[in-house]
Every structure is written in C-alpha cells, then in structure tokens.
Amino acid sequence: MSELLELQDLSVTYRTSEGPVPAVRDVSFTLPAGRSLGVAGESGCGKSTLAAAVLRLLPASATLGGRILLNGEDVLTMKFGRLRAVRWGAASIVFQGALHSLNPVQRVGDQIAEPILVHDRKATTGSARKRVAELLTQVGLPPRLASSYPHQMSGGQKQRVMIAMALACKPQLVIADEPTTALDVMVQAQVLDLLTSLVRELGLGLVIISHDLSVLGTTCDELMVMYAGRVVEHGPAREVLGQPTHPYTRALAAAFPTIGDPSSRFAPSGLPGDPPFPGDLPPGCPFHPRCPSAIEACSQRPVELEQVSPGRTAACLLVEARP
Amino acid sequence: MTEATAGTRYRSPRAIAWARRRASWSSSWGIFRKQRSGIAGVIILAFFIVVALVSPLIWPASDLDVSQATGPILAPPSWAYPLGTDYLGRSVLTLICWGARVSLIVGLAATAISMVIGTLVGIASGHYKGLIGAGLERLTDWFLVIPFLPLAVVLATILGPTLQNVIVVIGITSWPGTARIVRAQTLSVGARPYLERAKALGAGDWHQMRRHVLPNVMPLVLANTTLTVAVAILSETTLAFLGLGPSDKVSWGSILEDVFQNAGISQGAWWWLLPPGLCVVLVVLAFTLVGRALEVVVDPRMRER
Amino acid sequence: MSETEVRESLMAATTSAVPVLEARGLSVRFRGRGGGVANAVDGVDLAIAPGEIVALAGESGCGKTTLARTLLGLVPPAQGEVRFQGKALKSSRRALRAYRRRVQLVLQDPTGSLNPRHTVYEAVAEGLRIHRVRGNEEQLVAEALSRAGLRPPERYFLRYPHELSGGQRQRVVIAGALVLQPEVLVADEPVSSLDASVRGEILALLLKLRDELGLSVLVVTHDLGLAWNIADRLAVMYLGRVVEVGPTEDVLRDPQHPYTRALLSVVPEIDQMEPMVLQGEPPDPTRIPSGCRFHPRCPSAVERCARDPLPVIPVGAGHTAACWFADPERRAFTDS
Q1: Which residue of A248, B18, B228, B254 shows the fewest CB atoms closer than 10 Å?
Q2: Touch criterion met for A and C (3+ Cβ pairs within 8 Å)
C-alpha cells in the first residue's frame, strides 16, 4: 500500500533575468495518512515553493525535477484533466496570508461552496449549502456564519473558514502554509487544536509549514527543517525539538526560548547575518557563513543528508553518520 | 570626514545622490520606451511643439493680418497654399501653425495652474483632519460638480475674452480632478507606518507633507497632468469655438469658429474645416498616450502581467 | 556621556525612584464601528523606571498598542495623564515636540517604517533635521548607525531600504530613534516581522542599549518568550486594563491571574502546564463585561466576579494581580 504523499528528490528552479534560482533542492520525504509533518524554515528556504509544487501551482518560470507521488500517482506527469480533479479533491492547500485570501465582496458560505460546485457536477446549491453547514460545524463555527462577509469576522474565524474551504471536497492531504502567523497565541492554539483533531477524526495527512519551530514541535508527528532549499534535519518532532543535532535547528529552537529556563533570561540568542537568497549561495554547506560551529571543510564540500539514528537524518559534517 | 572604503573613489553624498537619481531616471525611461503608444505620443507632441516654436520664423505674423491677406478666398489646396485658404484669403496652413502656439500655450499654462492648485488643495484636504480637511474636500466636490461649460461661459463673460482670462478660466475649472486624485493618494500615504514614524520623531505638518507626502504624490500628479493638458486644450478649443476666446489670437478653436460663422461647410471648404479639428484630435491623443505610458512607469503594479 | 557617567546617573536615578515614564489613571476612548464608545484603554497605572525594560503583553485588541501610542503623545487620553520624569505631559504642540526628543518609537514593520525613497542617511538624519539639532550631522548619523550595529556606518549611508535585509532595516529604524539621544524607547512588536534567527540579534541590541546608554525600553508584544528574554518587568493587559504586573520571573513562573495562566499554558515553549485553551475571543471594547472583565471566559469565575468591579492596579506594588483568587499578598486590593 503506497504512502499518501511521497516526494522523491524534488527540485524546483526558477528562471529569472539574473539566471536560474534553485528554490528547492533534492527534497524527499514520505507521509502516510493520519500523520502530520511540520516543515520549518525561514524566508528563502523554499517551504512555500514546496507546498505549491505538490499541486503544481508554480508559475511557468519554474522547472521541476524529481517526483511527487500522491497515492502512487506522479503529480508532475499527470494530464491536466486528472490534475484538476486531484486539486482540492485529493489534496488541498490552506494558503499563507489567509486573512487576505478571502474575497471581500462575496459571502463566506458562497466561497466555501465554490470548490464543491466546481468539482461535483451533480451538486446543487441546496446540497452545497448543506455541506457548507457541515464544514462550518466541523471547524467549530456556527453554520449561520455562512451568510456573513469576511470583514465581519475576526482573524481566527477567517482562518477557520480557510480550513473549511480546504476540506470542502474531502481531500486526503491538507497542506497548511503558515496557518498561525499573524494570529494571537490563544487563537493559534485553537487553530492548532482544530487541525490535530481533524487529522485524528478524518484520517487526513497534514503538512504544516511554519517558521515557528515550537509550534510544529508540539503539533506534528514529524519535523523537517529546511535551509536554503535543502532539508537539513528530519525526524520525530519531539526529538528534533528536544535534541536538535544540526546547528541551524539548534539556533532556530533557541530563538524561541523556553519560558522559565534561566539560561535564556537576558540572553536572547540569534544568528548573525541573514538567511541567504537562494540565487546567491556560498560554496559547500549553505549555512556555514552563519554557523557557530563551522570548520574549514564546511565551505569546501557539499553536505548530504545522513542518518544519525533510526528515523533521524541531518545534513552536517560535524554530526556523525550512523547508518 | 568619511574615509573611502578601499578600492572606491571617494564621492560626496551629493554626487552619489545625483548618480542615483540619473540611474532611476534612465530606468524609468527604459520602461517608458517599451510602451510603443507612449513613444508614438511623444513623437506627435514633438512634431507639434516644433511647429509651434518654428512657425514665427517661417511665416511672419503679418500673414495672419486680415488686411494683408492676398490669397484667393476659399481656394482649395494647391502648391502655393498646401491647405488652401480661408474666407479672408489667408493660408490655412499658416493659421494652423500659428494656432498650434495658442492652443499649446493655453493648454500648458492652464494645466500648470490647475496642477498647482489641485496638488495644494489635495494634499491639504487629505492631510489635515477636522474642519480644514473636510472644508477643502467639500470645496473640491463643489467645484467638481459644477458643469464646466456654463461656468466657463459665465467666467469668460465676466472677465472678458483675453488669452490670460481663458487660461485662468480653464485653470480654475479643472483643478478638482487633480485634487481628488491627490487627496486619495495623500490619504493612502498618510496611513503608512513611515508617516507615523515621522510624527513620532516630532515632525510638524509641513515637514510631513513636504518630505513624505509630496514625493509620493508627484509621480501620480505627473501622469495625471498630461491627461489634464489634453482636457485643457479641448476646453480652449471649445471656448474659442463659442466665441469666448480672444478675438485677436488665432487658435484652432477660433478657426473652427470662423468656419461655422462663415458657412464654410455648406460652401464645401473641407480643407478649412478638417485640419484644425484633426490637429486637436492628434494633440489630445498624443497627450493621452503619453499620460497612460507615464502611468505605467509610475505605478509598478501596472507593469508586468 | 561616557559609560561610567551613564552608570552613575543610572544608579542615582534608580535610588531617587522617580519613574522616567508613567501612566496615571490613563483612559483612551475611540468611537467604535457601530457608533458605541470603545474603551481601548480603561484605566491604567504603569511606571517605567530609568534603565528598565518593561514588556507590555496581551492579545490583539487589549489596548497595549493604544497605551504605547498614548505614552508617546500620539493619541490624546480621555482621562488621566502621562508623566515624564515626574512632570505631566502637556498637550501643546511645543511641549509635545520637545517631548519627542526624549521618548522615541520603533514600529513593528521595518519595511513600512522607512520611506522607500529616502536613503538610510536621510532616514536617520530626519530626526536631527526636524529638531534642528546643532553639530556635525554626518558624525551624529554615523554614531547612531554604529550603535545600532551597522558597521562601518559609511557603507550604509547611501543604501535604500529595499537593498537591506529585514534585520538591517530594523537597525536603521533603531538608529533613527537613537540619533536624538532619547531616554525612553517604545518598541511595538520590534521583532515579530523578522526571521526567527535574526530576532536574537535585535533583542540583544536592545539589551546592549539599555546597558550602555541607560535607555529605558517599553516593549509591546504578544510574545511572552520575548518578555522572558529581555524584560525586567511584565504587565499583562486584557481589554484595556492591566490584569497582572510584576517582575518577569515572578509573573511567568507563578502567574496569579487566570488569564496570564491561560496565555502561558498555550505558549508552545512551555511544557509544564496543561494547555488551557480559552473558548471564543476577547469581546468588543465597546461592550466591556461588568465586574471583572475577564469573567465570561474565565474557567474559575464565580458570582462575585460578575458583580463586583475591580479597581486599577496601582503603581509600585511589586507582583500584583487583579483577581479575587490571587494570593492575598499578591492581590491588588483588600477583600471588603
């Protein structure tokens, strides 16, 4: 039985006026149904490109390499008709900046019903309306909200509407791109609770993309950290968060200090410099200019993902590979 | 003083600032150049401007003098008179070239007035909250609502038909359009964080408007100005056609007025009727094309896609 | 001023215990959307001592941003007053202008805070030009940029904001505030729009400025982890009132107010607490609940919470919470 989602050496390169920009390089992972994967990283790491690639939503200037297997079928070689059915029917995305993704002049219920009516030719407005009410209840909103406009709703409510929209056609895979950025910490907790319960109840596969490592660490089963388009660490979420092996993961985890931990009191930890622009990468390990533990070899040899313990991989010369 | 970093020639901040300004102008020109309609507009305009500047040298003003007209009356185009003659025997070509001067001058001068008033009122009404802002906004709306032609007729009648008055009349009837656009842009800029930062730094209203609002508003005004010139020229033509322009100056509108007053159409003098109208159309079209191309330069969102 | 002079004046200031910036009974009202009156800030007493970093935390709509802007003089209060070094802030234009040199603002979005048409030099020099500060402008700008961590400063003079990274832009904004040599910096979510790995540097910069210049900082944030990182004291706001205030370690290790406890429990960086996810969202500031404003969402609310109004937490009381269930020594008022 094949996995729900499997990426095999996915690469995405954008053609720009300044030359090719490799946004994603050789990313591989598998996700079975009923499990959640967190993808962590900052700007320029390629995580949003990765999300869009799964449904082939990238612009024409992007060249893709590798395979994206959704239930065994390669999305990259699908015919357009099959792709249309797959989009939203088998996999859907909750986009970043959801708060601005809703059409301000259309009622929320109509917007949720849109994918239903597009995908199911036998659907009527009546049956669509019933399904919309079902979806709103599923995401914890009162069904009467279907007749409101987006500006009448709060940030948390809008985010739930986006999730309801993503569930409209009963997909098996949901990709949530920064679902909790710009939300208050309490609303964030509500939305994350909702996502975890949906995974449990509906047996969904969930991919959450975020720059907040601790959010992913507590919500997801597995955690994958990306930097400059490459995967630098991958493993069970709690382990990766609790004992990070890659220096970048360690820095990212330290940027969100544990409250109550005296070592981070008056000692904010950050990295010098900025995340690199993917078109302008240094030789060797892309992280070495900012890495506190870099040695000379780091700037000379490219670094591969190696297994460091069963179920955990990391791409760092300083971490011993234990196959 | 500052030390030069190794390997670079020391240039004063002003020199570098100018170099940057030149670089940004040349990149704007590059974008403008890609708009073929804009280039077409520039060529047409350049042609008319050259004609307007050069005509006194080629055809002396005496050619327009009624008492010195020597040509045949209402003669169709011939080698001696490429565009024929009018009802007084003057060469229509000479009239057109001289008329270009008046039309362009009036258009540009009236637009200058309108732009200055419109920008000042627009920025002030967008920036000042409370009575001043609301009052200026109402004033703008009031002027906007008044129909142009009756107002222009009334003003021209009161003030008298001289060139200056025509310029003034057009100027004070066309500023509300600019003012509204400027006001909208001022409101949008005013909501941006860097304006709040300026306030927090202690900037007064004058500093905020001069250093932050005005530079952000000017590109829009520029694009709008070229469109306003087109409207001003049309307005001048209309006023002259109605007989409200100066009687001693020849403009395209006054030529048309003469055609109508002297039954030019029923006499079949198409060479007298067509050229002024065509010139107005071409110049207005040219300004509009340039204006739209400028809008593309100014607004980055209109560029790609 | 040299560093030793700074430290000495700092010690003198702390022992004299006059807060550098203070809110006394402050209330700010706005016209709400439906026509009602929104009490964005509904009675707040807050003091910031010289050289102290105070974090103002809460969810959106709690009034922390409005409070910060009122302390800056950008928003007029409906009631109460703002005091700078013990003296009330007057609302005349001249007084506000002079005040602006002493208390500066750093906004959330560094990209929006800088005029895209102005170079870094112009952005930093703007404050000097507005106040017509005498002295070598270039030198003052270079110093401010250096202090903000952009070295060598000359290299940044002619850059435009879009050529810099997010962290660098925020440093430029901080330099623009420092160039006027203020005594207090009010930072509204200074790092929330920056990349995670860059935050630490900016926070470390704020700490350094406090140590080297004796700058007081009021940080408005929704991130309790940030408060743990750099704040001496923490004030938690809910619906226009401060519900708990005190030294950061005390408030975060031993929260007394149910709202603080709930907020802490859902922060992912906390392991020891059982997550207490509150239902719904904070109500509209035009319809503040009677009695304790938190009672409709409070898991421990009883009848008197809806009935008896709570007074404002006064200044200078150490770790205090506005809740009937707080420890008696930590309660802001006596049981009547």
Answers
A1: B18
A2: yes
Specify the amino acid at residue C184.
Answer: V
Report the alpha-carbon angle A74-A77-A81, nearest 5: 100
Nearest to A274 among C167, C230, C252 (CB): C167
Contact residues for C86 (Cβ-Cβ < 8 A; gap 6+): C18, C19, C22
Per DSSP, helices labelled H in A203-282 are 213-219, 237-242, 247-255
- The pLDDT, as a whole number, for residue A221 is 92
Q: What is the pTM of this model?
A: 0.81
Which single residue is written with the structure tokens 């020109």?
B29
- CB atoms C155 and B207 under 8 Å: no
pLDDT at A193 > cutoff 70 = yes
Complete domains list, chain C, with CATH? 1-85+183-197+214-336 (3.40.50.300)
- Model confidence over C269-314: pLDDT tens digits? 666 677 777 777 777 777 888 888 888 888 888 888 888 888 888 8
**Which residue is closest to C115 within chain B, CA to CA?**
B194
Question: By three-state DSSP, how is residue C33 classified?
Answer: coil
Q: Which residue of C has its CA nearest to B13?
A: C158
Write the CATH number for B202. 1.10.3720.10
- Long-range CB pairs of B33-41, under 8 A, 24+ apart, other chains included: B35/B292, B35/B293, B35/B296, B37/B289, B37/B292, B37/B293, B38/B289, B38/B290, B38/B292, B38/B293, B38/B294, B38/B296, B39/B293, B40/B286, B40/B289, B41/B285, B41/B286, B41/B287, B41/B288, B41/B289, B41/B290, B41/B293
Domain annotation covers residue A269: no
The pLDDT of residue C309 is 80
* Nearest Cβ partner for C267 among A156, A185, A268: A185
Mean pLDDT of all residues belonging to chain A: 87
pLDDT in tens, B241-258: 888 888 788 888 888 888
CATH of the domain at A16: 3.40.50.300
Domain with A53 in it: 5-90+171-247
Q: Which of B201, B213, B218 to mutate to test the interface with C (most CBs of C within 10 A)?
A: B201
Orientation of helix A155-167 relative to helix A185-202, angle to 10°: 20
Question: Could you give the number of structural domains in chain A?
Answer: 1
Nearest to A184 among C202, C222, C268 (CB): C222
User: Is residue B138 situated within a structural domain?
Assistant: yes
Is the model's pLDDT at A116 over the cut of 50?
yes
Find, in chain C, the residue whose alpha carbon is nearest to that of A290: C197
Q: Do the Cβ atoms of C107 and B192 come within 8 Å?
A: no
Distance (Å, whole) CA C205 – CA C175: 11
ipTM above 0.90, yes or no: no
Domain that holds residue B247: 29-60+84-302
Which DSSP string do the residues of C131-177 spell out, in sequence order? TT--S-HHHHHHHHHHHTT-SSGGGGTT--GGGS-HHHHHHHHHHHH
- Could you tell me if residue B3 is inside a domain? no
CA-nearest residue to C136 within chain B is: B1
| Cα gap C66→C112, rounded to integer Å | 19
3-state secondary structure (DSSP) of residue A252? helix
Q: State how far Cα A35 lies from the chain centre.
A: 13
**Chains in contact with chain A (at least 3 beta-carbon pairs closer than 8 A):** C
How many structural domains are present in chain B?
A: 1
Task: For residue B18, tell me if it sits in a domain.
Answer: no
Please name the helix (run of DSSP H) or strand (run of DSSP E) that holds residue C3, with its range, or none.
Answer: helix C3-16
Q: Is residue A36 part of a domain?
A: yes
SS3 category, A308: strand
Tell me the β-bridge partners of A205: A173
Q: Which of B86, B94, B93 is nearest to B261 (CA)?
A: B86
Residues 24-43 of A with CB under 8 A from C: 42-43
Q: Chain B residues with CB inside 8 Å of C180's CB?
A: 201
